[in-house]
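Components:
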Amino acid sequence: MKPRTTTLNLAFTILVLLLVWQIIAWLVHRAILPGPITVGKAFIHEIQGDLIEHFLVSLWRVIASMLLAIITAVPAGLVLGQSPRLNALFTPLIYLLYPIPKVVFVPIVLLFFGLGDAPKILIIFIILFFQILVLVRDQAASLRQELILSVRSLGAGRRALFRFVYLPASLPAILTALRQSIGTAVAVLYVAELFATQKGLGYYIYLNGSTLFNYPAMYVGILAMSLLGLGLYYLVDWMEKRLCKWM
Amino acid sequence: MIDVDAISFNYPNGQTLFENFSWNVERGEAWAILGPSGCGKSTLLYLLAGLLFPTKGYIRIDGESLTRPRPKSGLILQDYGLLPWATVRQNAELGLQIRGFYGPDGTHSPREVIPSTDVNPWLLRLGLSEIADSYPAHISGGQRQRTAIARTLVLHPDLLLMDEPFSSLDAPTREGLQNLTLELQEEQNLTLIVVTHSIEEAAVLGKKILLLGRPVHRQPTIILNPHQGGEAFRKSPSYHTVCDELRVRLDEVSAV
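Structure:
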């Protein structure tokens, strides 16, 4: 059983975090580390400006990459998982590519795809693609032979096996892959948004921190980016509760 | 009904299991295939199910050579083969959904329309109505096997193939399900073939018993068990006589 997160202990944890933040801010006593109250005030101010637009641009980039990764990696993982021959063929390639930190490709992807959303979406997509591919492939390959045989005996051919067995079986793997890669995706989003864009939370944080020296606004950006990651995490959690009731 | 015609079968490692082996099953008969583990009895069942194919010879059911699982054959395995993410009801409906997915194409599902697509009577008949919305992980082994039986019988099969169906169940549950299997066989006029390593189970379920010893199998060894039946038979002297005979004959064929 997973430990449950109740609203009460969540609220308590947030309170403790804010308190620790405030204490450190007092101790450091520098412009670069404003306390939560200052940042809170800045948040209310910034949200009336263009913060929401930056947030939505970043959200769109992450969601688009996630969807793109799901619709490509899931079928590929399923095909590899149910065919030992194809799996044997592609395993060395995946084995070599999987551990490469994809974030190093940011400059190259930017060079090739230039301005706009495409390179940002692409780089997050590459990271999520491998995570989902590997987990879905392993999930599909680990299905017991007895299960496959008995469903085949009910008349299922290849197409029905995909629809009724492999696809539903891969759902928890997809959600696990998403949960595991949300942190990385948001981190890479930040890096990707440092270059060749004037929209997105990454750009917003960098602009306020390094050009305008508006530190409270920079922290507002950091807060917004954390909320983005947290929101996506909750979304996956919620989907898991809805879609994987048997677990 | 089933005509196993001079089949040969080798494992991928080259070991020969069957060589020029022939065997016949008539419609409505109840057969048990009895033998020690590794004798190839499950392989024979998978051959009959159209999940494996002989290297030589033919298996014909109702005159048609098997090239894939036959829509009117049902298969029940020891580990139930239920979808863990589906409820008892959804599992029972799986075969119907697969048929709906393909339509009556004659290969994946029979060409004629199935009289009823309602699983409720079967859930009721097998005592599953109360747990219809539970997931397989949350029900007992006996209930899981009942679900697998419901899923198969909903499709109105004429041939029921079972591979060690009750071996992982406790004795009272096992006997209950054996009795149920016999009732259903009679009620639905099923041809029944049960693979088992248990002498007692073979004696209870098989009106005819095919003995398999150590491979290679060339000739079928068949024992007749005309008084086969449920509770009453289990307590009768003829049950013990058959069990004793099976024990002796099994030793003989295994020693060869």
